[in-house]
Amino acid sequence: EAQVTQNPRYLITVTGKKLTVTCSQNMNHEYMSWYRQDPGLGLRQIYYSMNVEVTDKGDVPEGYKVSRKEKRNFPLILESPSPNQTSLYFCASRLNNEQFFGPGTRLTVL
Amino acid sequence: TQLLEQSPQFLSIQEGENLTVYCNSSSVFSSLQWYRQEPGEGPVLLVTVVTGGEVKKLKRLTFQFGDARKDSSLHITAAQPGDTGLYLCAGSPPLYNFNKFYFGSGTKLNVKP
After folding, report:
1. Residues B60/B46, Cβ–Cβ less than 8 Å
2. Is residue A108 helix, strand or coil?
3. CB count in 10 Å sphere of residue B74
4. Closest CA to B47 of B85, B106, B95, B91
5. Please, are residues B33 and B91 in contact by the beta-carbon 8 Å criterion?
């Protein structure tokens, strides 16, 4: 089944403790992206990657890092999480105009 | 400030009623997309409109792209409880060639039986 998977689905952590949210797609898409969703703000793009080793900032990249060492994986790294990064995170891959989203990761930073 | 403004934010209607959701911007977009998101899931693409003035129909849903490619609307005829969800518009300005995307804040629709 063609899909985007994210892990973990839920995470509660404390300020300053480094964490990684993994994202994997099995559709061989070149483009992948990370978004955060907050009430009243819709989805905001954090980072995107057009291909292996090619990444660029979205609208809200501060406090996040990404890497794209292989086509299928696009992990999101929070080196020192803060409470304002508490949010619902979505990974997506894209073919032509259509984005395919993962199920989301709900992150709480205490 | 959102690049894409959606209205209304919330809509609660009875089954069988019609409704329209609007997505407006002061910027031109290469295309605009509409997604539907259900609780606990990621957004799912409904339609992409590309040409100014374009109208697309998906069963009881009608999507329109403004002539100037700055706005779009979603009209639902005879809404059903299964239409309940969060509707999001999204677009990529021409400068970014479908790499950078902006989403509206969403319209939360509740259709009561």
Report:
1. no
2. strand
3. 23
4. B91
5. yes
Q: Give the nearest partner residue to A97 out of B31, B43, B103, using CB atoms.
A: B31
Structure-token match 């994986």, residue found = A73
| DSSP notation for A44-57 | EEEEEEEETTEEEE
Which one of A68, A97, A98, A100 would you mutate to disrupt binding with B, by most B Cβ within 10 Å of its Cβ?
A: A97
Residue A26 near residue A73 (C-beta atoms within 8 A): no
Q: How far is CA A29 from CA A9, A52, A98, in A?
A: 22, 11, 11
What percent of chain B shows pLDDT beyond 90?
A: 83
Strands A10-13 and A105-109, how do they pair? parallel
Low-confidence ranges of chain A (pLDDT < 50): none
C-alpha span between A23 and A71 (Å, rounded): 11
CA B17-B63-B77 angle, 5° bins: 15
CA distance A70 to chain B (A): 19
Q: How far apart are the first and last CA of chain A?
A: 36
Q: What b/e readout covers A54-74, taking b as 16+ CB neighbours within 10 angstroms?
A: ebeebbbbeebebebeebbeb
Structure tokens of A98? 């259509």
The 10s digit of each residue's pLDDT in B93-107 is 888 777 888 999 999
pLDDT of residue A97: 81
